[in-house]
Amino acid sequence: MVKIDLSGCAPFVYEGDYEFYKEKALEAYNVLDKETGAGNDFLGWKHLPSQTPESLIGQFEDIKAEWLRAGVDTVVVIGIGGSYLGAKCAIEALSHSFQSRMGRREDSLDVVFAGNNLSEDYLAELLDLMLRRSVATVVISKSGTTTEPAVAFRLVKNFIEDRYGKEEASRRIVAITDKSKGALRKMSDTEGYRTFVIEDNVGGRFSVLTPVGLLPIVLAGYDARQLLAGAAEAEKVCSEATENNPALKYAAMRNLLYSKGYKIELLVSFNPRLTYLGEWWKQLFGESEGKDGKGIFPASVNFTTDLHSMGQYIQDGERTLMETTVSVENSNRKLMINTDPENLDGLNFIATKRVEECNRMAEMGTRIAHIDGGVPQIRLSVERVDEFNLGSLFYFFEMSCGISAYILGVNPFNQPGVEAYKKNMFALLGKPGYEADAVALRERLPIGF
Ligand code: PA5
Where found in the cell (predicted)? Predict the structure, then answer.
């Protein structure tokens, strides 16, 4: 389970201020719990861990088994934002760091992602890969109308149909979308694809514990039951209406720090497998809180890697940063640094220590240095990187985000700002209905476009 340590914030805040924000967090929690706040029709994520039936995971395992029997080795998971980041985060965190070069794990499929950009090179290279592999696809879009996944799916569908024929294609395509609305629903019904539903009351960035996250995780060979078990434990702990609730503490402290001018929060990890936890977290908090001219700007760094690129700024640049470190108590592997009789590199002082001990000392040294440099430190810790702890982290952050956004006074569950670029892109691409916008926009384009 996720533990929280706020002692690294003590030099930056008064105890009385924290008490005040804890009260605000408790009020915000009650609004979430009683479902009386803005966006209260998007609270379906709250009980997913405890209410998801076992049989759903069984259905995902059946698809994996069927595809493996049919010789499929690669699954293209198509989606953007909340429709891919959770699965990407979990699969990256659970996979061998060199998985693609180590070869496919037994009883699993190689999951690759598409539909999260509009790069022609990326999609052409995806087709290169698909030519060498036996492919199936999972296309995910709640609205069923998002351009990036729709473009990728059109290309992937065309490839699969050409290669395997229409009938086999309908067995190799699974769609996850709305139960009745959107182009993807219509297409799935027409073509006879298997589908799973994203319920109306779960927003994209809160959907990792629905089929959106769980199906790709199962296909990649990881244990979705354990993921849900970890999330269920967090559901219990984060549903306490007391100040022991870690989600409440986190939400209270980050808002207090924000009120004191710490406008940017860095999510820090000392394990490269957690890089995509930062990406998932940025979407969750950025899209939920960044509105009405308010919101902590979420960014992420990986240490010690980024201490050699961003370290100078963090230590010594403008003092608007706070850090939240996701600390992992135990590595999954053990590796000791060997003794070298010649000691030409001068490293014998750490010989016989585990690499993880060096990493831990780097973490502690960084924490103290950054406190001295004026960067408040929130520390979250989990026992290890595995399905259970990832599930806990997902739920912990979702609950913290809901509470935090209500403290800030914004609706955590809408994203009106995301529409602005889409409107312009449609107009510039000549979508019917956007003609007048297109004329106005073309006048504003820089020379060369
Ligand atoms: O959190 C959100 O709602 C968004 O990030 C969406 O997940 C993203 O825009 C993709 O939308 P859709 O699943 O409708 O294609």
Answer: Cytoplasm
CA of 79 to the centre of ligand 1 (A): 8
> Do 280 and 395 contact (CB within 8 A), yes or no?
no
Q: Atom 12 of ligand 1 has which residue's CA nearest to it?
A: 141
Q: What is the CA radius of gyration of the chain?
A: 23
Q: Which long-range contacts (CB under 8 A, 24 or more apart) does 302-308 make?
A: 302/268, 302/269, 302/270, 302/271, 302/272, 302/274, 302/275, 302/278, 303/268, 303/269, 303/270, 303/362, 303/363, 303/366, 304/270, 304/359, 304/362, 304/366, 305/272, 307/362, 307/366
pLDDT digits (tens, 9 = 90+) for 244-270: 999 999 999 999 999 999 999 999 999
Q: What is the pTM of this model?
A: 0.96
Q: What is the pLDDT of residue 443?
A: 87
Cα atoms found within 13 Å of the Cα of residue 431, Cβ hemisphere only: 10
289 is catalytic: no
* pLDDT band (50, 70, 90) for residue 419: confident
For ligand 1, atom 8, name the residue with the nearest CA: 81
| Length of the chain measured in residues | 449
Positive/negative CA dihedral, 64, 117, 287, 254: positive
Q: 393: part of which helix (H) or strand (E)?
A: helix 387-408
Q: Dump the DSSP string for 311-372.
A: HHHHHHS-S-EEEEEEEESS-SS--BPPP-TT-TTS-GGGTTSBHHHHHHHHHHHHHHHHHH
Tokens of 368: 């103290």
Cα–Cα distances (Å) from 290 to 26, 120, 296, 398, 411, in that order, read 22, 30, 7, 15, 10
**Residue 36 φ then ψ, to 5°:** -110, 5
- To 5 degrees, how large is the angle CA 352–CA 355–CA 356? 120
In whole angstroms, give the CA distance from residue 77 to residue 219. 10
